[in-house]
Design brief:
Helix content: 40-55%
Shape: flat
Largest sheet: 5 strands, mixed
CATH topology of the domain at 135-325: Penicillin binding protein transpeptidase fold
Number of helices: 28
Strand order of the largest sheet: 2-1-3-8-9
Strand content: 5-15%
Structural class: alpha+beta
Length: about 750
Amino acid sequence: MGNSCQSRRNDKALSVYDWFFKRRDRGQIINWLGIDAWIDSTLAETWERIKDGYDAASSFFARFRLTGWKRLLNEAVSEAVSLATGGLVVAYGLALPAFMEVEDGKWLKTGQYSVKFLDVNGNEIGKRGINLDDAVPLEEIPDYMIKATLATEDRRFYEHFGVDVIGTLRALVENLRRNDVVQGGSTLTQQLAKNLFLSSERSIQRKIKEAFLALYLESRLTKDEILKLYLDRSYMGGGAFGVEAAAQFYFGKSIRDVTLAEAALLAGLFKAPTKYAPHVDLAAARARANVVLNNLVEAGYYTAGQVHHARLNPARIVETRPKESPDWFLDYAFEEVQRLMEGKGHFNLTARTTVDLNVQRAAEETLVTALRQRGRAVRADAGAIVVLETDGAVRALVGGPDYGDSQFNRATKARRQPGSSFKVYVYATALENGYKPTTIVRDASRSCGNWHPRNYSGGHGSGARLPLWLALAKSLNTTAAELSFAVGREKVIEMTQRLGVTGIKKTCSMALGDTGITPLEHAGGIAAFANGGKLAKPYAILEIFTANGELVYSRERDEPPAPQVVSREVAEQMNQMLHKVVTEGTGQGAQLDFTHVVGKTGTSTGPKDVWFVGFTGKYVGAVWIGRDDNRPMAGGTTGGQLAAPIWRQVMAVAHTDMNIPTIPGLTPHPVQVAEQQRLAALRRNEPPTAQQAGPAPRAQSLMPEKTKQVLQSIAQSLKKATAEAGIEPPDDSPSERRPDRRASLDALRGRR
């Protein structure tokens, strides 16, 4: 019995190790050691075969082994191919954003509309639109106009594939020889790509995009189509696009009828239309035209004798367009017209816009002057200014310092980091979620991943406790970051979307404005606080008429009322806090002596961007200053130092009277109160109207005193005679005279 139990226990123990041992019929187990030995031997044999194969291959390829200079050349070529392949991959990645803009095909559709624009007062200010179907065909453009263009801009146009390697190398050599930039390496196709899709920034990234887009255009269009687009779409100064518009503007004739001298002048405008525009600098324009004539001879298109007459008889200009053309605004307004009229079937239109030319002129001049005076010192070369009414009506829009140099509209298309000016949306979200301007917060913040916010002074926060409004006035990064964490970054993004600001991403540092935003969007976003919390989506068009005068769009008629996107209480509290930014904080450079100012400065890391966004009771303004190549400006440059004074100068000109509404949440400015009192006093002293005056006072007699005495004696004699005859004298009261006359008439009727 005991033995059988022991046997069962041994069987059970063996079953535990059945994963290693297995009983056979005769009680034998598998030899796993033998299996292991077989595996080892197989692997060893396989490895030996691989080594033999490698040795055989090495022996075979050793026949082709290069030595000496052949090896060096082979390695150089291999490295070049590898680098070129990697470079192409990187370049294509850099060019993808430009290709995305190309895909919608809008660059071919812009010619469908022909629009005449009027300012807010109904005065013509310019035209936009090129109808490709109705434009002058290429074969009808004079031969010397085409040759002048090719001789000056791209002599090998019909020989290259969009990028002229030979021409680029030749220009590089010539520039190195003269130690100056005397020749450009860009082909005509590259110039067209830049004009259609890119800014004028001088960077490797832009040149790469330009090259890829040139290849794209060459693959989509014929050479003649590219040349035609270049002649139709190039900016020629004076608000004119294309050679036909330029010929009409400068010479009052079609491009079909221009002379060789006139064609040379037009061809000279492609390089720098603002610099060489004849209505700006006639001497420079004619000097440039002579260069074009030289190019015609050097290229072999004409002889010196054939161009001699054109040299002796330079072109004379006749301006036929308004001198003041708010080109940046017109480009934006043209886009809005196309959006409003899409699918309506109307293409020849007249649009009354919102622009105020006085404000537009002030903004343009202020930006140019500021960059000229301070741009070199702070290493800034670009900027943008937007001025709106509090409902979103665009009164001025400046997309850069020189429209002739680049038509890239930085006000509407450049998405730049707003820096601390983005805190407006963060603090508004906090107010909407229970915070008050007097709520005590700390100069400190939690970390987010590996990121820990730092203040402009460099520290991570002093830990001091202070009211919310003071934290905003000091523009503390730590407090703003903590607020975004406390209320939820999703709510901040939702706030921006409500206010019309798009593209904001949820990041750790989003409260500090790390996501790009356009100046126009930024101005529209803060305008909601200026009008008490209503959406202020920017707009440029008031009315659109067809060629027959039919009203096809009216903003007042066709657009719904602006919705309330932020409560008036939040808007008022926000304005009170932003007013402190201007009076006691970083925005003191924006103060005006005749009205309250509300606003916020912004400075991105670098600094690469400086901002001031703010408003009075009448106008909302956004100012951005930076560089087109997105490189940092001089250290220490801030929004309060550079952008705020520019904003102040524009607003000082824009406000032509003191009839300025009071900002919601603020008391009227003392100057405005005094002005209102002065106007009220003037109204009191004005002569009353006919309705207010009542019975007119008797006019003062101007007759001589002796005459008056004679008449009085006659009147007394008559009165005495009527009394003696028993006749009642008439009463002097008008109210009494009327019944007497009625009674007399009744008596007469009765007698009849």
